[in-house]
Amino acid sequence: MSEQPHAVRAHAKLTRTLKMTGLRDDGYHLLDAEMVSLELHDVVTLHPDLAETTIEVTGPFADGVPTDRSNLVFGALDLLGRTAGVVIDKQLPHGGGRGGGATDAAAVLRWGGFGTDPASLAIAARLGADIAFCTVGGRARVTGIGEIIEPLPHVDREITLIIPPLRVSTPAAYRAWDELGGPVGDGPNDLEAAAIAVEPAMGRFRDRLHERLGEAPMLAGSGATWFTELAFSSVAERDDALGDLVDEGVRIVSTRTVAEPIGAMDR
Fold first, then answer.
1. Contact 226/205 with Cβ under 8 angstroms?
2. Looking at domain 6-153, which CATH architecture does it have?
3. Assigned CATH for 158-258
């Protein structure tokens, strides 16, 4: 009897703090970060054991998401030794530091029962550095190249993501960090100066947000998403501060942290 389709939530990842701690001989950067899972999620539906893997992407942010083998879901299924027809309902904007591709792949690994022991997470991280955390989820200290996951107690936080119409390539940000001499940031994210070097408009946008919020926004990973943990009293208060930016192509998303990823959903 063939397996029934399974729908799995793929929760967004947010890097709250990021400190760069070194460079391995093989060129991989070492980090010390706090990562959390967010309520915001894609839905990955798997039709198992087709003759070959296919990927279809739907949803409001489907544009630009690859459906060929550059999509990390292919690699996740390879690790499981499985094939499937995969439909990704893309609710996470593509790019921007929220781990969209990594969390889709991690959802597939969780569906397939892939391990969360250190050896398995090291294998997952070689496929994509954020995949190890997204497989475990919740809140954790993440070190090494992203493969060492130390779970931390859940803290319920309200998060407002502020996503400008800008792109910062993660490899380009790491290269810029190297070229800048490995700067240590004054704030919680050592990659902030590098992200701004790659895309100078990021700095101007940060300064505008600082004026509006009354405090500096924080950079999510290598960008281009900024976020704040200010507790707005209402959507109206949030929109008073930030709503007009939508006319400039900025996306504003309010969400919360979640304790751990949620597995298969009822159909």
1. yes
2. 2-Layer Sandwich (3.30)
3. 3.30.70.890
Kindly give the interhelix angle for 72-80 and 118-127, rounded to the nearest 10 degrees.
140
Q: What is the pLDDT of residues 62-101, one digit of tens each?
A: 888 899 999 999 999 999 999 999 999 998 876 555 657 8
What's 172's DSSP letter? H
On whether the CB atoms of residues 142 and 149 are closer than 8 A, the answer is: yes
CB 112 within 8 A of CB 82: yes
Task: Say how far apart CA 116 and CA 119 lie, in whole Å.
Answer: 8
| Closest-CA residue to 22 (of 249, 190, 245) | 190
Q: Are 84 and 77 in contact (CB under 8 A)?
A: yes
| Residues belonging to the active site | 13, 130
What SS3 state is found at 123?
helix
CB atoms within 10 A of CB 88: 27
Alpha-carbon gap, residue 2 to 240, rounded angstroms: 53
Residues of the chain with CATH 3.30.70.890: 158-258
